[in-house]
Known about the structure:
- The protein is mainly beta.
- The protein has no helices and 11 strands.
Amino acid sequence: QVQLVESGGGLVQAGGSLRLSCAASGRTSSNVVMAWFRQAPGKERDFVAAISRSSSATDYADSVKGRFTISRDNAKNTVYLQMNSLKPEDTAVYYCAADRTARARPSRVIRSYDYWGQGTQVTVSS
């Protein structure tokens, strides 16, 4: 079992930056693929970024590529999402997720992820 707790959300102006954190706890918390998803009001939950267990592989949605960076510190059991050049369309609840399966590359598919955090709100004003 893995528990995930997100933090770092808030209100920021367009062009600004935020860093989200996701603290994982549990016996296998450092042995899972981690990802961020987001869900805007009235929309489906979408993939944002993912990182492999060793940080050797990352993947980003096209909409955030070049602006967002995912990283992890296995010693702290924490994954981060650095978000730069934020846009109003980045406004959403951001969720951290963990995938127990040993995959060659991180998955973009929601159903691949076994554990989810409660979400943190990010609001970007224009």
